[in-house]
């Protein structure tokens, strides 16, 4: 390739070929790598041989001194040292499950629970005899009991009721209202009572649920000179006439207040 080489010289060609000059000829062979570790990293860019500075474990590159757990190690801990991966697993006692800290790491047979003359399997839930308000569970050979949780109630204490055989209290229905209480004047009206709150054109009634419903009266009858009766909503057009502040009955005649030569008569139509 245009480069002189001394007899016996060795060099590396691209593609990791190891070449030597012998008797005027170039002899090349694939470079052989001696890897003195169990989990070497692939050769770095431009290199030919894997490196033992770090580890390649399950397709994941680990740095020198890295401590990790394999994906299915079941609490196994591994460490990368000089390209070698060493793993340690917890010591599991035979038979029943060990302490809770090792229960998830060791394959074991959960212990059964003997409670009040009965045997329960691991994880079984049950109630005490005659007490449905207490729930017990068998965990690793031991029984833990607790009261059945009750929901939060949004009613006052005097409306709560605990029925026979029930574990949790419930809210009683509030008593049906017997009337309507008005805060503005402190008067209580019985259910069905009708009254006027001060305006003769407005009537109110006390509903069965304790609420007050009011409705106004619309006056449709009109006349030029109506008689307004105190306490009555609509003016009265059938009783007579109102003229200049005076009330005259039907067919009554009277002099005009504007012209004494004029005579007026009240006609109800």
UniProtKB/TrEMBL annotation:
Subcellular location(s) per record: Secreted
Query: Main site of residence?
Result: secreted
Q: Name one GO biological process term.
A: cellular response to virus
Keywords, ordered alphabetically = Glycoprotein, Secreted, Signal
What GO cellular component entries does it have?
A: cytoplasm; extracellular region
What Pfam family does this protein match (any one)? VWC
Question: PROSITE patterns, alphabetically?
Answer: VWFC_1 (PS01208), VWFC_2 (PS50184)
Q: Which InterPro entries match?
A: vWF_C/EGF_Fibrillin (IPR052080), VWF_dom (IPR001007)
Q: Which part of the chain is the VWFC domain?
A: 1-53, 53-114, 111-172, 178-238
Q: Which domain of life is it from?
A: Eukaryota
> Could you tell me what this protein is called?
VWCE protein
Organism this protein belongs to: Callaeas wilsoni (North Island kokako)
């Amino acid at each position: 390739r245009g480069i002189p080489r001394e007899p016996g010289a060795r060099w590396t060609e691209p593609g990791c070929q190891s070449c030597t000059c012998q008797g005027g000829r170039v002899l090349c062979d694939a470079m052989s790598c001696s890897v003195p570790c169990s989990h070497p990293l692939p050769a770095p860019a431009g290199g030919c041989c894997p490196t033992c500075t770090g580890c390649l474990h399950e397709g994941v590159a680990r740095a020198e001194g890295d401590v990790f757990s394999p994906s299915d190690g079941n609490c196994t801990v591994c460490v990368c040292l000089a390209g070698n991966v060493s793993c340690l697993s917890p010591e599991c006692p035979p038979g029943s499950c060990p302490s809770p800290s090792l229960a998830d790491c060791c394959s074991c047979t959960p212990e059964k629970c003997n409670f009040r003359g009965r045997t329960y399997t691991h994880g079984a839930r049950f109630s005490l005899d005659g007490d449905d308000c207490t729930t017990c569970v068998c965990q690793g050979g031991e029984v833990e009991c607790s009261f059945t949780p009750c929901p939060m109630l949004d009613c006052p204490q005097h409306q709560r009721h605990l029925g026979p055989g029930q574990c949790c209290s419930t809210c009683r229905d509030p008593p049906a209202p017997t009337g309507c209480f008005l805060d503005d004047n402190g008067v209580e009206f019985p259910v069905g009572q009708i009254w006027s709150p001060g305006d003769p054109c407005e009537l109110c009634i006390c509903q069965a649920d304790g609420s007050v419903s009011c409705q106004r009266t619309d006056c449709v009858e009109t006349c030029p000179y109506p008689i307004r009766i105190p306490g009555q909503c609509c003016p009265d057009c059938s009783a007579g006439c109102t003229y200049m502040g005076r009330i005259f009955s039907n067919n009554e005649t009277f002099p005009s207040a504007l012209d004494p030569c004029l005579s007026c008569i009240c006609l109800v139509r």
